[in-house]
Design a protein that fits this description.
Blueprint lengths: L5 E5 L10 H9 L2 E8 L5 E2 L1 H8 L6 E5 L6 H20 L4 E5 L10 H9 L4 E4 L4 H9 L10 E4 L5 H9 L3 E5 L5 H10 L3 E7 L7 E3 L2 H5 L7 E7 L7
Parallel strand pairs: 1-5, 1-6, 2-4, 2-5, 7-8
Antiparallel strand pairs: 2-3, 8-11, 9-10, 9-11
């Protein structure tokens, strides 16, 4: 029996045309695709990853595992252990297994718990890189993120206002991801510093993508899970 490495496949931000050829080929050859999903408020299971895979023309068996969208780790870790067990069983049966995640599998992707679990168990793995949401967002807004000696700093939703002010004062381009976890902090900073060059994004790479640059427009938003900011210090920005 032939055994194939368990592949962790990056799907990109949500546009099937941004799926790499290598990722597409890996998914196309898979016997089983495992991917996370969420349970909506009406109780139905949904998965942006599944929709993306289908939109890319891949008609394979996709098994969705509901992952809690919350900060508690214990419930999520039990789900990831379940994904690992499904992947390991399929691997031992000689199947080609792909674990598909949005964005890039190596950038703030909680599915790394499954990858680490596979490695700890001695199972061979592969990792296919993808386009992260902030790169797609910069392209959408036609932004040049960094050049020459400029620094690009990426931080998840545990940033403080002081950190934002310090990074921007030092000339960094700042990417803040997982905005739903720091909405109050971001809005306080936005109110205090409308002169910053604010670029707010939601659902990058999808048909309902949002890009806002005026502070007053951003303040009116309730930040969803799939949102991010790109900002720098540009003194000539108008006030709110």
């Amino acid at each position: 029996m032939n055994f194939h490495p368990i592949q962790f496949v990056s799907l990109g931000p949500g546009d099937p045309e941004l799926l790499t050829l290598k990722a597409w080929k890996t998914l196309k050859e898979a016997d089983l695709i495992l991917t996370p999903g969420i349970r909506a408020s009406d109780g139905k299971e949904t998965s942006r990853a599944v929709r993306l895979i289908r939109d890319a023309g891949i008609d394979k068996l996709v098994e969705t595992v509901v992952v809690p969208m919350e900060s508690r780790c214990d419930a999520a870790l039990a789900i990831y252990e379940n994904i690992y067990e499904k992947a390991a069983q399929a691997y031992r049966e000689g199947k080609r297994v792909a674990v598909a995640v949005e964005g890039d599998a190596g950038i703030y992707a909680s599915m790394h718990y499954v990858l680490d679990r596979c490695r700890d168990a001695g199972l061979p793995v592969g990792q296919q890189p993808g386009i992260p949401s902030f790169i797609a967002a910069a392209g959408m807004a036609q932004l040049h993120l960094a050049s020459r000696q400029e620094r690009l700093t990426i931080i998840p939703g545990n940033i403080t206002r002081t950190e934002i002010e310090t990074y921007l004062a030092e000339g960094h381009t700042l990417v803040v991801m997982k905005l739903s976890r720091c909405e109050e902090t971001i809005k306080q900073c936005l109110t205090a510093h409308p002169e910053y060059d604010w670029h707010y994004f939601e659902n990058v790479g999808t048909t309902n993508a949002v890009h806002l640059t005026h502070p007053s427009d951003i303040l009116l938003r309730s930040f969803p899970y799939f949102s991010l900011l790109i900002l720098r210090h540009v003194p000539h920005r108008a006030s709110i």
